[in-house]
Design a protein that fits this description.
Elements (H helix, E strand, L loop, with lengths): L10 H9 L5 H19 L2 E4 L1 H17 L10 E5 L26 H8 L3 E6 L11 E2 L3 E2 L1 E2 L2 E5 L5 H9 L4 E6 L5 H7 L2 E4 L18 E6 L2 H11 L29 E4 L10 H13 L6 E4 L8 H13 L6 H4 L5 H9 L5 H21 L5 E5 L32 H5 L3 E8 L5 E8 L4 H14 L10
Parallel strand pairs: 2-3, 2-8, 11-12, 11-13
Antiparallel strand pairs: 1-3, 4-5, 6-7, 8-10, 9-10, 9-14, 13-15, 14-15
């Protein structure tokens, strides 16, 4: 098998070829691991790679095909796990020296579900420290590079997953998104990323934060994300926020189309400063939805103006619990994270409750607005990838929060729990990918997947690969 191309094969195709014994899990895994070994020193997508274990699991998968054992939907298909999800046989270090080498005693539900369907875990992908930032580096693992331009930002806390997907490290990559951390790496790395409705995929241990973290798939095709979501979704007793309903048959229902759908488009949500190259690509992509039979209108989003203040408040409050590590570890931590922690250490309860009331009003206004629209289209971020050592491209930094001056489009839908995806929609003149954000009504994960699949069919992207 050709190690240069094997890692780009979609999971839907690979699973069927393995099931019918046209592809050997062992030969596939050998070729994939060879590719990873060749590229990984430069991309640095893995916090922990378990190559020997993955090859042993591939041998077991091959033996099962002969003995007639149960064959799951992802039998022999490789998958990566973000290093915020606990794993019983691999360290979970959360991008921090504080948890360097930490070994949990159990798997997170999403890991167990992927294993139960026959997926082979390749390892843990890199994250920013505790997933706090939109830049792809951490004190523990250093810089994760964007495969489209080495040394450039791969984006937010699921950066390792996004870089792995773009580089052809297999088809399936688990991400999580507390303010854009699936969608932003998908945007920067030119892959597909879906943040499902909150609770669609169980998240354990349940965060003590403000219930904004969503688990979802990061893949090169929409069909692969649909399949992966089917496997991961559904209620779980360890996550009291998980939705009662089981997953829909997403994969079989992707091709329902967009005819007659009411689609809103906002180039800036009334608050963002979008780089011209990004704005042009997103505007052109939004216009193509009319070709798919949708009714597309550029509309105001009056609720958006309060989002940045609310997001910053609750994000900072959410990490304030890390203050207990500062006496011992502050010098070893991300300075921006330390500043964020200190900003919220002394927030009065009365202030927190007042901001929470404002947030609930804000979320209600988003859902009222969506009563008139099936989907909303926006840029995924205001900029394309930029050098990873910077916190923001070409803008003066006067405050740690200035980093988020280019993250104006994603956090709203973490607070409101709407499903949202980043769909590749083109490249800047410098050859850097850009993502179109597609947001649906809450619970309409299927609608977002169908819209993404329709756009993918009209304007395919999976054949475009970085030259590594």
């Amino acid at each position: 098998m050709n190690s240069q191309t094997i890692g780009f094969m979609p999971a839907v195709e690979l699973a069927e070829l393995i099931r019918t014994k046209e592809v050997s899990p062992v030969e596939y895994m050998g070729a994939l691991l060879a590719r990873i070994a060749e590229l990984e020193p430069r991309i640095n997508a893995f916090a922990y790679l378990t190559a020997d274990r993955a090859m042993e699991d591939a041998k077991k998968a091959e033996a099962a095909l002969v003995t007639g054992a149960r064959i799951g939907r992802l039998h022999g298909v490789p998958v990566t796990i973000k290093d915020l999800q606990i794993t019983k046989d691999m360290p979970t270090q959360q991008g921090s020296k504080i948890f360097g080498g930490d070994q949990p005693a159990e798997d997170a539900p999403v890991v167990s579900r992927l294993r139960d369907e026959g997926a082979i875990i390749l390892g843990k992908t890199t994250v920013s420290e505790f997933g706090w930032t939109g830049v792809s580096r951490s004190p523990l693992t250093g810089i994760t590079s964007n495969p489209w331009k080495l040394g450039y930002n791969a984006g937010a806390s699921s950066a390792g997953a996004g870089a792995a997907a773009a580089a052809g490290y297999g088809p399936l990559h688990q991400g999580s998104d507390g303010g854009g951390s699936i969608r932003l790496p998908a945007h920067f790395c030119g892959v597909f990323g879906l943040k499902p409705s909150f609770g669609r995929v169980p998240n354990y241990p349940v965060s003590a934060g403000d219930m904004t973290s969503h688990i979802g798939p990061m893949t090169r095709t929409v069909a692969d994300s649909a399949l992966m979501l089917e496997v991961m979704a559904g209620p779980h007793p360890l996550d009291y926020t998980s939705l009662e309903a089981g997953p829909a048959n997403y994969l079989a229902r992707l091709r329902n189309g967009l005819k007659g759908k009411r689609v809103a488009y906002s180039p800036d949500l009334g608050i963002a400063r979008v780089e011209p190259a990004v704005a042009e690509l997103v505007k052109a992509a939004a216009a193509r939805f009319a070709e798919l039979g949708a009714i597309v209108e550029e509309v105001p989003t009056p609720w958006a103006k309060d989002g940045p203040e609310l997001f910053r408040f609750f994000w900072s409050a959410g990490v304030s619990g890390l203050a207990r590590y500062l006496p011992k570890w502050e010098a070893e931590m991300d300075p921006g994270l330390v500043a964020c922690i200190r900003q919220s250490m002394d927030i009065p309860v009365s202030r927190f409750l007042e901001m929470r009331r404002r947030k609930m009003d804000y979320v209600a206004n988003i859902h009222r607005w969506f009563q008139d629209w099936d989907l909303l289209l926006t840029p995924c971020a205001s900029v394309a990838a930029f050098p990873v050592e910077k916190l923001t491209p070409g803008r003066e930094m006067t405050d740690p929060w200035d980093e988020f001056s280019w993250v104006e489009f994603t956090h709203q839908f973490n607070m409101s729990w709407n499903p949202a995806a980043s769909v590749p929609c083109g490249f800047t003149p410098n050859g850097l990918p850009v993502g179109l954000q597609i947001v649906g009504k809450r619970f309409d994960d299927l609608g977002v997947l169908q819209a993404s699949a329709a756009f993918e069919q009209l304007q395919p992207w999976a054949d475009k690969r970085p030259q590594l």
